[in-house]
């Protein structure tokens, strides 16, 4: 397919997403099934165009003066891909499979593209209804923070120290991936996003199959380290899901002590067993709930560290899931807040005197972070937040002090400040 034909295809996929209100992955899959002549490179390039358009949907529509799929794609080419008007016009020739030629209005708008007068939610490309929450947290940095959340994310890898002696050993084994060491996590390697959106097939690499590396955002690595899990401790990963943070905790604990991995949805635990085996983890018990019964009742009051990787809106992952931000609704936020309340109350029963709850979200909304913990502490006496500076020092992450945003009870990572996904973390210590 020609570059122009790929643009036409991306416009078609965006129209399908808008008409049927469904995730981009589903629309892209259906397009590929109905256009089998398109090769893997074509499909990857089209997906990249679609996701870039979703990243810049509001700002692209603003400069083009229309919210149609065509307008969004054209505006994205100007704002995200940096193409000038002439370059865009060359792609829109109206010839075989190419988009129709630009109108005079489109030419003028592309030539004069300017976001200087745009509202914050347009310049930052996010739903307008969450602006009050974000403004309350970010203040004058709101637009620059949200613009960073509209960029492409790299592929980050965590080196598994249960299998590899050092990050350098893993790095030297993967020279063909072009990975560099992550700047903040001592365990991370980073692969920059490619121009066409095609990342390397990391999961096919021999080193991945041997358990040397796991795909994990640097921010996720950092908040796992912040938990301070130590060899010999008793730990519960209460929302373990596929096990990404469980694996990180097991490596921190050097396979000594015990981790109990559970989740209220047993289906989310399905991948964890193979991942544990591949990573060489021996100190994890997977507790699968049966008929909605609590799988860790016998551990109440016995646990040193309860990790709550809480269900949330996922706003902090919009670099990777740009279509999710346009599907987010106020009702979704309220649902997640109730789930956070439930899981925090469960964690309170598990942790022993002197133990700690490590609360993590991949969100930047204060309702899911500090405000969730404020409500928790109003319900439960005897818990105090550990100061962020102390938590960073204990985890040997003091170098983050000037990069993270300290909050009332924890700290916030963001793409703008730390180059990671948007993660929140706080540690609540139970009185002895």
Tell me what you see in this structure:
InterPro entries: MeTrfase_RsmB-F_NOP2_cat (IPR049560), MeTrfase_RsmB-F_NOP2_dom (IPR001678), RCMT (IPR023267), SAM-dependent_MTases_sf (IPR029063). It comes from Microvirga mediterraneensis. Pfam families: Methyltr_RsmB-F (PF01189). The active site is at residue 362. This protein is an alpha/beta fold and 432 residues long. It has 3 domains: 3-118, no CATH class; 155-215, Sun protein, domain 3 (Alpha-Beta Plaits), CATH 3.30.70.1170; 218-430, Vaccinia Virus protein VP39 (Rossmann fold). The protein has 20 helices and 13 strands. Strands 5, 6, 7, 8, 9, 10, 11, 12 and 13 form a 9-stranded mixed beta sheet that branches. Strand 2 and strand 3 (188-191) form a beta hairpin. Helix 4 (57-64) packs across helix 5 (69-79), helix 13 packs across helix 14 (244-252) and helix 17 packs across helix 18. It is globular.
């Amino acid at each position: 397919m020609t570059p122009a034909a790929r643009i036409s295809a991306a416009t078609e996929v965006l129209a399908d997403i808008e008409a049927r209100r469904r995730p981009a992955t589903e629309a892209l899959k259906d397009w590929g099934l109905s256009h089998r002549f398109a090769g893997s490179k074509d499909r990857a390039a089209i997906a990249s165009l679609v996701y870039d358009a979703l990243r810049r949907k509001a700002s692209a529509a603003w400069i083009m003066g229309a919210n149609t799929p065509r307008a969004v794609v054209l505006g994205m080419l100007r704002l995200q891909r940096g193409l000038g008007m002439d370059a865009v016009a060359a792609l829109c020739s109206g010839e075989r499979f190419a988009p129709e030629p630009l109108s005079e209005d489109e030419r003028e708008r592309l030539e004069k593209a300017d976001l200087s007068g745009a509202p914050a939610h347009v310049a930052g490309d996010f739903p307008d209804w969450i602006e009050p929450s974000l403004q309350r947290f970010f203040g004058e940095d709101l637009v620059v923070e949200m613009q960073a959340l509209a960029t492409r994310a790299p592929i980050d890898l965590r080196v598994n120290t249960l299998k590899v002696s050092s990050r350098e050993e893993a790095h030297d084994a993967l020279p063909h991936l072009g990975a560099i060491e992550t700047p903040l996590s001592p365990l991370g390697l980073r692969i920059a996003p490619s121009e066409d959106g095609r990342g390397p097939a990391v999961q096919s690499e021999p080193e991945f199959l041997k358990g040397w590396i796991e795909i994990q955002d640097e921010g996720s690595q950092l908040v796992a380290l912040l938990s301070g899990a130590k060899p010999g401790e008793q730990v519960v990963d209460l929302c373990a899901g596929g096990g990404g943070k469980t694996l990180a905790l097991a490596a921190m604990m050097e396979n000594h002590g015990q981790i109990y991995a559970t989740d209220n949805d047993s289906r989310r635990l399905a991948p964890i067993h193979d991942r544990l085996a591949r990573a060489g983890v021996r100190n994890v018990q997977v507790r699968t709930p049966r008929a909605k019964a609590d799988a860790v009742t016998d551990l109440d009051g016995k646990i040193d560290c309860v990790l709550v990787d809480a269900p949330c809106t996922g706003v902090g992952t919009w670099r990777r899931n740009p279509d999710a931000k346009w599907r987010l609704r106020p009702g979704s936020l309220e649902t997640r807040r109730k789930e956070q309340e439930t899981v925090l109350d469960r964690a309170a029963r598990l942790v022993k005197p002197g133990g700690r709850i490590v609360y993590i979200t991949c969100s930047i909304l204060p309702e899911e972070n500090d405000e969730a913990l404020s409500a928790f502490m109003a319900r439960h006496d005897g818990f105090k937040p550990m100061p962020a500076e102390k938590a960073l020092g204990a985890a040997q992450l003091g170098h983050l002090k000037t990069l993270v945003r300290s909050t009332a009870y924890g700290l916030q990572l963001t793409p703008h400040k730390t180059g990671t996904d948007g993660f929140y973390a706080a540690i609540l210590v139970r009185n002895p």
